[in-house]
Design brief:
mainly alpha, about 75% helix, 21 helices
Length: about 500
């Protein structure tokens, strides 16, 4: 199990070695990066059976927590850890030859993403967050166009503000508790963080991490960045990176800030994200911008779901996150041939009927049309909202259906444009790789419909494990049998 550390070490090492090797052979340098990604997948598959039976905590360098650095590996973290190398491979710049710098940055992104989802203490979460930010800014700028460089700079400014806010939130937590280990903090949180200082710290971390997670109001970089980079990179950022930031926020909330005020704050920002994202997407007349603002709305739904107390909210959040991770990258890959004005897609169904049918399948699931997976995810969300008596969640019950109506309006408006009789198509051909990814996403949706019961059982297990504070504490500190006795002993 200790070899799980290689998920961070090997990509990080490859990121620095690839530019050196490229001086002698660019082919060898690229093969090194791809080999590391395949090896990372093999490591995860090897440890998967162990994690399925029991979560584990890994003490880096043999120094036990809370003093030493630790990685926490459970079914949720290993699932997202697997998604990282898989999606980097899928959205590797296969279709174009680019500089070795971009390949190296992809490896840095892989290493920092893996560290972010596995880290068991706030200090390392912040370090990996910063590394991920550097990789993201650089990957946007390395696209080489003036518009992408400008988008990268603006994203850098927004991300820098988020980093400062996150660091300030962590500093408040440290001054209140004297530790940064998540399990240790979970023990001390009821005494030291259940106050206004703790709530302020959570708000700072939420907004700071929210820059990556497309959270309102720090998501104005999204359409500009996604519209100026390659479809591969937009798909990777929208499908993967935003979900990793959400999972980290949820982990921190569950362990450190389970109080209602923190959950309601996240719910309110999620609702605002849903409303603003869908309304602006409705006004958009550009395909990529429409997808970008739609992504903001979908991330708002995910935050709203995770803010609902209990297993139902956790199940809805995981379901929505995984569903978005499958559908949104596929839609961005279709944007390779359909970028530009929506009017340019007039009559495209006559030339590419199967591609348009695939697009319709993806958006039907995104809208929540039964029996597709998106319907069950939104059904769980509405059930969770209905079970709460807070005014915030009542507002959520009103906002979600209204947002769905707006979403139906602009997506079906687009479908009507595609099925017009007049043929004024002004689009490029889709790449075979992009179509293959989109088709695989469609097949995955159908497969989930056919295996709905096993998928539901797995979702229940993931939700229970992610929401169980005592399970996390006992995994990191197995000498303690309950959170209460542990709190007394570890102090």
């Amino acid at each position: 199990m200790d070899n799980i550390v290689l998920l961070v070490v090997l990509p990080l090492l490859a990121a620095f070695l690839m530019p050196v090797l490229a001086r002698f052979s660019e082919v060898v340098a690229r093969v090194l990066g791809l080999s590391v990604l395949v090896f990372a997948i093999a490591i995860i598959i090897n440890v998967w059976p162990q994690v399925n039976s029991q979560a584990t905590s890994i003490a880096i360098g043999g120094f036990m927590p809370p003093i030493g650095i630790s990685f926490y590996v459970d079914q949720v973290s290993i699932l997202f850890a697997l998604a990282i190398p898989v999606m980097v491979l899928l959205f590797w710049p296969w279709q174009r030859k680019t500089s070795i710098r971009e390949y190296s940055l992809m490896m840095l992104l892989t290493a920092s993403s893996s560290g972010l989802v596995l880290s068991g203490d706030l200090f390392n979460i912040y370090v990996f967050y910063e590394l991920l930010a550097v990789a993201s800014y650089s990957l946007i700028a390395v696209q080489g166009r003036a518009v992408s460089i400008a988008a990268s700079f603006r994203y850098l400014l927004m991300g820098s503000v988020g980093s400062v806010m996150m660091l300030l939130g962590i500093a408040i937590i440290y001054t209140q508790t004297g530790t940064l280990n998540l399990a240790h903090l979970s023990l001390l949180a009821p005494l030291h963080l259940d106050n206004m200082a703790g709530l302020a710290a959570f708000a700072l971390i939420l907004v700071g991490m929210g820059v990556k997670a497309e959270l309102f109001p720090v998501n104005n970089w999204v359409p500009e960045v996604y519209g100026s980079v390659s479809s591969n990179l937009a798909a990777l950022m929208a499908g993967l990176l935003s979900k990793l930031a959400v999972i980290v926020v949820v982990r921190i909330m569950v362990l450190l800030f389970p109080q209602p005020e923190a959950m309601q704050l996240m719910a309110m920002l999620g609702i605002l994200g849903v409303i603003t994202g869908e309304l602006v997407a409705w006004r958009a007349r550009d395909f990529v911008r429409m997808l970008s603002f739609s992504s903001i709305g979908q991330l708002g739904l995910i935050f709203l779901a995770f803010s609902i107390p209990g297993d139902t909210g956790m199940m809805a959040g995981i379901a929505l996150a995984l569903h978005h991770m499958v559908v949104k990258p596929a839609l961005f890959m279709l944007a390779t041939g359909w970028s530009g004005s929506l009017e340019n897609l007039s009559g495209v169904a006559r030339r590419s009927p199967l591609t348009v049918l695939l697009f319709v399948l993806l958006i039907l699931s995104l809208l929540g049309i039964p029996p597709l997976p998106g319907f069950w995810a939104k059904y769980l969300l509405m059930v969770g909202l209905a079970g709460q008596d807070s005014a915030v969640y009542t507002l959520g019950m009103i906002a979600v259906p209204l947002a769905m109506i707006v979403e139906i309006a602009y997506l079906f408006r687009l479908v009507m444009i595609m099925y017009r009789k007049e043929d004024t198509v002004k689009v490029k051909a889709h790449s075979k790789w992009g179509l293959a990814i989109a088709a695989s996403a469609g097949a995955a949706l159908i497969a989930i419909v056919l295996q709905l019961q096993p998928a539901g059982d797995k979702l229940t297990t993931l939700a229970q494990q992610l929401s169980d504070r005592n399970y996390y504490i006992m995994t990191v500190f197995p000498q303690f049998h309950t959170a209460e006795t542990g709190m007394q002993s570890i102090k």
